[in-house]
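fold-stage: in
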Amino acid sequence: MSSETLRASSMHSSSLSSYWSSESTRLGASLGSSTTGAMAHYDIFRHGLAMMFPAYGHALWEPGPGNLYPAAVAVGDVGYIRQEYHEQLTLNMENHIEIGKLSPHNFCSAGVTSGTGSDPWAKGPQEEGEVSFSCPNHQGAVLCLPIQAKGEDTVASADFGKWIIKHIDRWFGWARQLGLGIDRMEDIVLVTGTHCARSWTNVAFPGWQEDAQASFRAKVDHNGDTVTLNWQSSHERNRGVVLNYGPDGENLPEDQCIFIRGFRVARKLKILPPRLKGAAGPNPDPEGYDEEPDAELMSIPTVPEYRDPLHILLEYIAELLLALTAIWFLFMMMTWHGFMTVVHYTVSDQMRC
């Protein structure tokens, strides 16, 4: 994929969309998304799945598309992350993609146990096909996928990386002009892959209740080409958890983005002054942009470790140590040169005497 193809969907090609997906306000407001000093439920959900399934990418707490832009997140979109929802800045860019499938599965983080056995705290018998998850006194996450999901990934990752590095300054500046509250360049994401499902259920265990449990049932009926899905849940069995259910109905579209993969860019902090080339400041003409040597490309996911701004700080420290080492070496060389000069003059004076 050429840079011209990517550039076809510029920041001027569409108005700002409402969001890629939004935080679950209906559940967060009633159950409490977080408390002072505690992780929010969407952070618990993302972190738990990222540790167990890093290759799938960034798990969204609310995968559904928005009202003003009713379309799923697609490969080539540019957006940003805020409290586990993704605001979209552009329409997706045409590119060659690789199609994959994600089979129905219950994705559980570490510490979560699942089963259909008896519940010592249950107020009644479980319904047939009901599944339960428990995570006593620990934080945990579950993504229930009852129907196969579709995966898409670009086959031009190198071009995507070059493009976002080249144009990140314009995207960041434009986002700030819009007053979106984006203060960090690395919050902007170029999507390189997604998994989109028809429906889902997300579960977050805050970790403060001994008998924390979630129980629900996904009823899926196949009748020829018609697939009907209905979620059923008993509130008496759900305690100490935050739940978010996907849509139900007949022949649901695959527009629920459960996982996002992509590129982010961060500037490396420099100790020594860079060599200046031409005028100071970025060239407003995108065609005049040079490759940015001080830009670091970060991927979502980052295997095997999760990246955060601390890594940029570590690079700063490493560069500082390198600069101090160079200064120390230069000082030692100058000291040694001065010492040898004094010895030379002393020997010469003694020989003349």
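fold-stage: in (second)
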Amino acid sequence: MAIFNHSDNAPTPNNNNTTIITEGSFIKGEMKLDCNLYIDGEFEGTIISKKLVTIGKSGKVRGEIQTDHIVVQGLVEGSIDANRLEIMAAGKVLGSIVSSELIIEAQGHFEGDSKIKNKEMKNKPVNTALNEKKKEA
């Protein structure tokens, strides 16, 4: 885990091969993506992505996120399974996380349970590692 100073240099959406949920939008359901995802609106449900997921400053997600890399500037309530999780200064994560790398900037907020993803889980696809984790429980 690392803690850094406040930064406004958070990623912004690159429209090349990025799905964007804009502010004012609400989507409920399941998303399976092979591209980047940027959320500034609201999403409720399950997100499964092999790429970067960014929750923008006005973004709110309630549910389960499985991805390689996630950057949180807004709010996530639920569970995150990611190889790399970054909680930026304005970001807030409430719930459970499983991650190989956890970075929390100063004034970033995390409340919940955290587990370190072991090497065996890290080398497996995110959704396979999550399913095996559920079987163990």
